[in-house]
């Protein structure tokens, strides 16, 4: 009888081990990240394709898993999107996607929000396979923009963060519904 209990305990331990990373299209992202002492979890991953080309893999990190883009955007909690590029893209290509996402997901946006997207566009650089963009929203602070591992600045407030993250998980995500579903873990 004691053997069966140990065997059962062993099985529970084996299957209770958390996944340590997510992998998609050859890109592995950690299952969690530390943000100022708070643990964020990998909510989901998605592959951005343009025609037949794989452009980047993105991961969305949140304080707790959430499958509703509306709830993520409504909450004033920390969030981070990491974009790992699989091919070279120019700043103009990246910026075009930002402005398209703003137009599609934030109708009637303010001049201030547009100027914050202009500031974001000014931070973009040529990106190549293996480069990363990282956007980390901290409530009350703004959205930190990291390009190729270097912090380029912190932009806006919650309205800016919502408009930026809506480019991926809003009502009309630029990369498409399948991409949005991937980030939301659906």
The gist of it:
The chain has 186 residues and is α+β, with helices and mostly antiparallel strands. Helices cover 37% and strands 33% of the residues. It has helices spanning 2-16, 69-74, 91-105, 111-123, 158-169, 177-183, and strands spanning 21-24, 27-30, 32-35, 38-50, 53-62, 79-85, 132-138, 142-147, 150-155.
Notes on the structure:
The strands form 2 sheets. A 7-stranded antiparallel sheet has the order 3-4-5-6-7-8-9. A two-stranded antiparallel ribbon has the order 1-2. The protein has 186 residues and is an alpha+beta fold. The protein has helices spanning 2-16, 69-74, 91-105, 111-123, 158-169, 177-183, and strands at 21-24, 27-30, 32-35, 38-50, 53-62, 79-85, 132-138, 142-147, 150-155. Helix 3 runs antiparallel to helix 4 (111-123). It has a single domain, classed as Chalcone isomerase (3-Layer(bba) Sandwich), CATH 3.50.70. It starts with a helix and ends with a helix. Strand 1 (21-24) and strand 2 form a beta hairpin.
The level 1 CATH classification is Alpha Beta
Helix/strand-derived category reads alpha+beta
- CATH topology heading: Chalcone isomerase
- Whole-number total of structural domains: 1
Q: Strand order across the biggest sheet?
A: 3-4-5-6-7-8-9
Task: Kindly state the percentage of residues in helix.
Answer: 25-40%
Poorly predicted runs: 4-20
**How far from one another are the termini?**
42 Å
How much beta, percentage-wise?
Answer: 25-35%
What composes the largest sheet? Answer: 7 strands, antiparallel
* Secondary-structure element series: HEEEEEHEHHEEEHH
Which word captures the global form? globular
CATH architecture tag:
3-Layer(bba) Sandwich
Number of strands: 9
Number of helices: 6
Could you report the average pLDDT, rounded to the nearest whole number?
A: 91
Q: Gyration radius, to the nearest Å?
A: 18 Å
